[in-house]
Amino acid sequence: MTTAAIPRVVVVKANNSRLESLCMIAATAVLVAATLVFAKVNARVDHTPPLMDWQLRAFDLKPTDQAIFNALTVAADTVWVWYEDTKTWTPVEEMQSEETGVAPFALDANWRQTGEVQWRLDRSFSFEGATAYFGNNGKVPGQSAYLLVLGHTHKGVSYADQSTIWLHPDPRAAAPRTLNRDSLIRNGWKQVVSHTGDVEVRQREWNPPL
Amino acid sequence: MKFRILAALLLLAVGIPAQAAAAHKLRVGVTLHPYYSFAANIVGDRAEVVPLIDAGFNPHNYAPRPEDLKRATTLDALIVNGIGHDEFAFKIVEAAGMKDKLRLIYANESVALIPVAGSGGDMRAVNPHTFVSLAAATQQVYTIARALGKLDPGNATFYRENANAYATRIRRMKAEFMSQLTQADLAHFRCATMHDAYGYLLQEFGLQIAAVIEPRHGVQPTARQMADTIARIKDAKVDVLFAEKYFASKLSDTIRDATGVQMYSFSHISDGPFTAEKFEQEMRENLTTLVRAVHASGERH
User: Fold this and answer.
1) Which residue range forms the structural domain that includes residue A18?
2) Cβ distance of B164 and A85 shorter than 8 Å
3) pLDDT tier at A205 (50, 70, 90 boundaries)?
4) Model ipTM value
5) Are A159 and A68 found together in one domain?
6) What residues of chain A lie within 8 A of the CB of B178, using their CB?
């Protein structure tokens, strides 16, 4: 006759189980806190100006509008440099010439590809302290009408020597009668906010530009 | 007699620093090859242009070296791209203890940036390759000239005039190649690029990029990304792939075999010696390639 062995379950508790649990909780808490601090310290601060409802972000533009917008920002710089030397605003015809070739005005392959927009220089806003290059009648479906405003007088105020670019969703929009901001907004124009290198540098939190 | 000697000594004391100041040429550092060309053409012989790191180093995996740190301490100003292609410069400046001393000239300060093709939503990354372009290059030339003029007012007019002349040369080069595309059918031209270095250049010619192969420079796409890209190339009827002249990649061969695209190579203007002519020379080669690719594509349609 055999006797079946009765299994015995013995629970062995660690001597310092309570301490181990506390250590684990503390370690987890330290890890979480360190992660939060790291995230806070290394967070990319968004220096992008908030967008108003009458503004568009350049990154959101359709390819044709974006190409024309970028060309206009370069053209604005070029026109300023020439203005410093000649004290006159460069006529569109001059920028259309094969030799000078300033986009988006130059009548070249890029101009055809971006809708053959009809450009003109409007000096009639000089009493407002501004000059404008206006472009409409582009042929690419969905493209806009364009307005480059160069604010040039009233030195000492915030808008002197600044350029702004506006888009109108109707490519056949008429030239504005005034460059007053509220009037432009009322008439459906939207100002394009560009992501410049300056903004990007601030995003990266390096030294501020000169 | 005593009075004469005193007067002579006084004149010497006043004159020496003035002469020294007049003789002091700015030492202007640059991070990337195009900035060497831009700066050299702006300053002529009135300032010294110095590459921050020697030619031949890959900026993408650069670690600061003692001679670079030493060089950084000798500069009056440093021209940087500042938006993602020359992070090594900031490591050097910091390691050399020049962070608050060295004047940084951000060439892209007023350049309107474009997103990396294919990056979307809130994660859109900025394309830092403004220096492989023509229009954005002229804008950077003006910015650099203005900044150097502030640092060296005596030569400000000289710098501005040189910047103007250089920008005019760049515009003429663009016009020259644009005229070769007068009869081309750009509307049906579809291209992809290995790396997103050519977004600005192609945009200036009214061209759009249908797909970018590498998610980041030198980063191989995963098998899934590769399959998606190949599908995108086929869907968009892409028939030209622009690879990089200095970066041979088996990936481009794989894509060519899978899709039948024609391969061309652009220069990223980031290799070889730093010279004043480099930007114009390599952009001219790039534009020649672009015109060839557009015409060949047109013949196939």
Assistant:
1) 12-42
2) yes
3) low
4) 0.80
5) yes
6) 101, 106, 108-110
